[in-house]
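RESIDUES AND SHAPES:
===
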Amino acid sequence: MTGDLVGKTVTEPGITYVVAQPDNGTLIAGVTGVGLFRGDANGETWEALGQGKGSDEIAHIVTSIVFDPENPERFWETGIYGGGGLLATNDGGDTFARLGLGLLNHNDLVSVDFTDSDRNTLLVGWHELRQRLYRSQDGGESWVNVGENLPSSCGFSSAPLVLDANTFLVGCGMQIARSVDAGETWEVVADAGGLGAPLRTTNGSIYWRVDSNFGLMFSENDGVDWTRTTEYGVLYGNLLELPDGRLAAVGNRAIVISDDDGRNWSDVTTNMPFAPGGVTYSVENRAFYIWTASPGTKVPEESILRYAWDYEQD
């Protein structure tokens, strides 16, 4: 599915992030040094985003893309190194605006308050730094570091989750902390979990990886209480919710799914040819996609792969 991205001159590590854009069957890929690209459903043709007049440049390692659930043309993007930070688009990626200029420049993940129609509250986690968690309450115009108030026991404050304008969670690698006053004070609510980006499902449940050997932490009450759902051997990268409510993730050999809140997992694809950077699923294309970063300055052919899988039949 790498199409005409093959051979493109890039900065290491090349392709670091791929996501299926909601509602239209296209893909968006983050390509280090040269920006974001949108690929067609067949993965043959990729067009550069951010080419509109006045758009800010994306040249960093892309670490996350978060779509507005009510408007897929609006999304936020984070990155590290190479002028990383936080950017936003309201026109499907034609133009991007950098938020927190001069302040946000090395960020792993952004979370947005989608309970607020104005999207005023944003929380941004920092890459491999403790007590660095920036909050905006005006849509990204101004920012304050609420990570200074995190308990000293917390690790890197990289992975935030905004539940509403006052209720925040942050994954600290080996702990999960919670705030009910917009980050002014924090309480550690789990002494495991908080690794990587969390998944909040359509029914409000929250899942967070513990580490690559000890499965998931699970909460049904907005992160107040947590239980470990599985001791499944290996779960890598990000977690997905499929349209029927099942969970999907990268296993140690194949893409795996669970229909019991992450307690048990089963392979649903053949063995993967490489350990991918993550997985995404396109409802429109009925397919999983995996990707891999690569050494060197040229994009290899098999950087993005597709596996046909219909969630309604399999």
Remarks:
- The mean pLDDT is 94.
